[in-house]
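Could you join me in thinking about how sequence relates to backbone shape in a protein? We need material for that, and I hope you will provide a protein of your own picking. Once you have written the record down, we can walk along the chain together:

…
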Amino acid sequence: MKRKVHNQLRVLWAIDLLAADKKVRASAESLLKVFSKLTSLEIHPSYIVRFSEQAQPLSQGQERKILIANVREAMKKWLSGVKLQLEEPRAVLQKGVYLRSDVDALVSEAKKAKVDFILVNTHARKGFSRFWMGSFAENLMYQSTIPVLFLNPSSKPVSGIKTILFPTNLSPDSHKAMRKVGEMANRLRVELVLYYNVEYFAATTGLALSEMMVLTENIEKNVEERKKTLEKWANQMKKEYGIKVKTIIDDSDVRVSHGIIKASQRLPACMIAMASQTGPVLSVLVGSTTRRVVREAGVPVLALR
């Protein structure tokens, strides 16, 4: 049965008033323009005023009102020239000295605004690698319960979106995330591409020939079962969301993140959507594959739970 999907997107645009590079704003603006052409779009610009930017005491009273008014004026100036319909810019005062407080403030604002995702540029003022490791963007990826759409410095201005590439490990959590991505593909009226990377493990040296043959046979059976599962998922998305879906089985001997990026380069006007998970595998999943893709892909990457 086909699901009913609202043809509207709400996005919190997390702007950075301290970003001197005009490409930061331009890349985000070009992507938002694409979304506005594909669906009804509401944009909620927000800026987190970090604790270090607040002259104390400014927690209440007239001083607080003056600070917020000044930040809003700075936001309007930063956003001047943006040819998109924007909601009134929001200045959010962060209340703690730790990076986690910045993230909590942004996610809280996103929840209040009832947005579908947060748009963030992952740029660096002193080198990208220094910005990324232990940064606001990484902490946001780890902690946000709201999907986050990342644009890194290598991302070229987006002129269109025709496909969403969804890498999956075929786990229950991945299936849950896939439904959210299928809903977005429906809203944007684009094709969904399910990607599965076949990870072969090298056989231990010293195995007897008979043992090697049994191991190889079991691996091949497992791969065939996973191919069938992927096709089953694709058919499910077609029926439930009425979208075009195709699958990619990647059995090349490359790191998973590199395989995902290469697949995105072969697809027309692609955006990548990746699931992050909670629990003990979080640091492995987000800290390696998803983080590498966000850091290295030249296309927008949506991280969601």
